[in-house]
Amino acid sequence: MTYDEIVRIIADGALAPVILIGSYMLIFKIPKGQRFQAYCRILLAGLTAYLLAKLAATVYQPDIARPFELLGQHAGALFLNNPGFPSDHTLFATAITCAVWFETKNRSVSLLLAGLVVLISIGRVLALVHTPIDVIFGIIFGLVGSLWYFNSRPAVYKSTSSLQK
After folding, report:
1. CA distance 23 to 60
2. C-alpha to C-alpha distance for 79 and 162, rounded to whole angstroms
3. How many CA atoms lie within 13 A of 82 on its CB side?
4. Is the pLDDT of residue 162 over 80?
5. What are the backbone angles phi and psi of residue 32, rounded to the nearest 5°?
6. Cis status, amide bond into 86, omega within 30 of 0
7. CA atoms 114, 77, 53, 20: torsion sign
8. What pLDDT does 58 receive?
9. Better-scored residue on pLDDT, 151 or 42
10. DSSP 3-state of 48
C-alpha cells in the first residue's frame, strides 16, 4: 500500500466508520420514547452547523484555490469544486460525534469518534484538499451546532419505570 493510498483511506474512508458507528448508536442506544426529541435536536444541530459554515464561507475564503491546485499536484482525496472553507468532512464527522456524545453519553464510543475526526482532519490536510484552517473551522462549526443539546433534557436518560416510582 502506497503513501497516497493510506492518505486517501484516512481522508475519505475514515468518514464511513463515523457514519456507521454514529448511526448505530443513535438508532439503538436512544430509548424509543426519547428518539423523536433526540432526532429533532440532532437535525437542528446539524442544520445549524452547516448553515453557519456556508454563511461563513460566503464571507470569508482564505484562498481561492485548494492546496493541491496551488502546488500543481493532484488531489489526494475527494473534494467538491469549491475553495474548501470550511471542511465539510470534518464538520459532518464532528456533528455526528457531538450527537452521539450528547444523546447517548457513551464516553468510549464518543472518544473513538473524536479520534476518527482527528484522523480525518489530518488526512484532509495531507491529501492537500484542505488547509489546517479549513479543518479547524469545520470542527468549530460542528461544535457550535451542538449548542442545541444544552439545557434541552436531563443529562442521562432514565427508564420510564424509574420515573413512575
Report:
1. 32
2. 49
3. 12
4. no
5. -55, -40
6. yes
7. negative
8. 92
9. 42
10. helix
- Inter-residue contact 93 to 120 (CB < 8 Å): yes
The crossing angle, in degrees rounded to 10, of helices 88-104 and 35-59 is 150
Nearest to 34 by CA among 98, 96, 93, 102: 102
Cα R_g (the chain), whole angstroms: 18
Q: For residue range 83-95, what is the model confidence (pLDDT) as tens digits?
A: 889 999 999 999 9
Three cell numbers, residue 49: 452547523
Residues in the chain: 165
Q: To 10 degrees, what angle do helices 15-28 and 35-59 make?
A: 150
Residue 133's Cβ-count burial label (10 Å; 0-12, 13-18, 19+) is middle
Domain regions of the chain by residue span:
3-75+83-154
The rounded distance, in Å, linking the Cα atoms of 163 and 79 is 48
Q: What is the pTM of this model?
A: 0.88
Rounded to whole angstroms, the Cα distance separating 32 from 36 reads 8
pLDDT, residue 163, reads: 47
| CA-closest candidate to residue 19, choices 140, 85, 138, 116 | 116
Single-letter residue type at 82: N
Q: Hey, CA dihedral for 138, 36, 102, 154, is it positive or negative?
A: positive
